[in-house]
Design brief:
Blueprint lengths: L1 H24 L2 E7 L5 H16 L3 E7 L3 H7 L3 E6 L8 E3 L2 E2 L1 H11 L4 H13 L2 E7 L3 H9 L3 E5 L3 H6 L8 H12 L4 E5 L10 E3 L10 H7 L7 E6 L10 H4 L5 E6 L6 E3 L2 E4 L7 H7 L2 E5 L2 H10 L3 E4 L7 H11 L2 E3 L2 H6 L6 H5 L11 H12 L2
Parallel strand pairs: 1-2, 1-6, 2-3, 6-7, 7-8, 8-9, 10-11, 10-14, 11-13, 14-15, 15-16
Antiparallel strand pairs: 4-5, 12-13
Helix pairs in contact: 2-16, 5-6, 9-11
Length: 385
């Protein structure tokens, strides 16, 4: 504990030193508050930050979240400083497909309303760092902090937590208090941006397409690194960053000439016949893996959908029927993408494997549409001119 405390003090001192240096270099600072629920919000935020940096390299991002620092180190080439802060809770997950509402409510009761001293301290911090703007994906705390600091805030979302929690309102009366409180914080946003697929459409300042991180390495380069020959095919199996055990791995070994790449939380990359098991934090950039694949099998979450959409490859998707977001995401996949639905039970027992080859025979869609991250970046840079 003393070592951790000292490290945060050292980081604060370093941030103050950087602020003085940045003033001399005319660095433009943006505070970015990011929900730590899964990696989808961090992935979308990273795609926007990277797009802003491509437009104007003078921006430095002050990132507030509990999403691990390595995620941003892997995703961002521009200037940023990481600040550990629990911005919001989202939903507690039992598995990648099942939420624990009881535990979610218990933690919400501990977290909300936000502690005044924390709000005051972070408000002072972003003022001392001379941040011009706060962007929130979809962290409601950021709007309260920005309001206290006297700077504008931007909400980027395809849903908000108050809307998600309404799904559970009939189960437990105490959630109504949190819904009302969070809705008030989201309404503090000075600018409201939604990204497709939008779960709760409303009148907003800007509507963007699916926002996805861009690839870094070519399909051929990734397959060479994975030791997959030109004659063989590649399938990526992903559950969106939430650890998952797979009972169907032995069945996959019967699929000749198909290599299955599976981020599964192992200690190091393992090659087992036609299986390639990757650690949770691997040397491979996830959008590169998607782009290099012939198809993706995985949970229908926002960032995976956005990446598969822009790659244009078939998607065997597992919806979350008890999540309010699911219906909109499935509608978008059916309308704009190619693929087929896999129930959670079919996914777990491996019955989906019999349909795999027919899925892989579907043609790749060539996209000629802007990336939502670029659209949002241009909009935000223009706001600050």
């Amino acid at each position: 504990m003393p070592t951790l405390f000292f490290s945060f003090l050292a980081i604060d001192r370093l941030n103050i030193m950087l602020a003085h240096l940045d003033k001399e270099k005319q660095i433009n600072r943006i505070a970015y508050f990011i929900s730590p629920h899964g990696f989808g919000h961090a992935a979308r935020a990273a795609s926007v930050m990277e797009a802003i940096s491509r437009i104007d390299s003078s921006f430095r991002f002050e990132i507030f979240t509990t999403t691990p620092p390595w995620f941003f180190q892997d995703n961002l080439s521009g200037l940023f400083t990481y600040h550990y802060l629990l911005t919001d809770l989202g939903l507690v997950q039992k598995t990648p497909f099942e939420e624990d509402f009881g535990e979610t409510l218990r933690r919400l009761n501990q977290l909300l309303p936000y502690d005044d001293s924390i709000i005051t301290n972070i408000s002072h911090k972003i003022k001392s760092l001379t941040c011009k703007l706060a962007i929130c994906d979809i962290a409601p705390m950021g709007h309260l902090i920005a309001n206290n600091a006297g700077i504008p805030s931007v909400l980027v979302e395809n849903f908000t937590w108050d809307w998600i929690y309404e799904w559970y309102a009939d189960r437990d009366e105490p959630i109504h208090t949190h819904i009302s409180y969070l809705r008030g914080l989201f309404n503090m946003a000075d600018v409201h941006i939604q990204t497709e697929p939008v779960c709760h459409p409303r009148s907003v300042d800007f509507l963007a397409g699916p926002a996805s991180r861009k690839i870094k390495r070519s399909k051929r380069s990734i397959r060479n690194k994975l030791q997959i020959s030109r004659e063989n095919q590649m399938v990526l199996i992903t559950t969106g960053g939430v650890p998952q055990e797979y009972s169907f791995l032995e069945k996959l070994k019967n699929q000749h000439n198909i290599h299955f790449v599976i981020p599964c939380g192992c200690q190091s990359t393992e090659f087992r016949d036609n299986l390639i098991l990757l650690p949770h934090h691997s040397d491979f950039f996830h959008p590169d893996l998607v782009n290099a694949s012939d198809t993706v099998i995985g949970k229908a979450g926002y960032s995976t959908i956005a990446e598969v959409y822009h790659a244009g490859i078939p998607f065997g998707y597992i919806p979350r029927p008890y999540n309010r977001e699911a219906e909109t995401l499935v509608e978008f996949i059916e309308k704009e993408m190619t693929g087929y639905v896999i129930s959670e039970s079919e996914f777990q027992n491996g019955n989906w494997i019999s349909q795999l080859k027919s899925l892989m025979e579907r043609p790749r869609i060539e996209r000629n549409v802007p990336n939502g991250a670029d659209q949002i970046a241009e909009f935000i840079v223009n706001l600050l001119k």
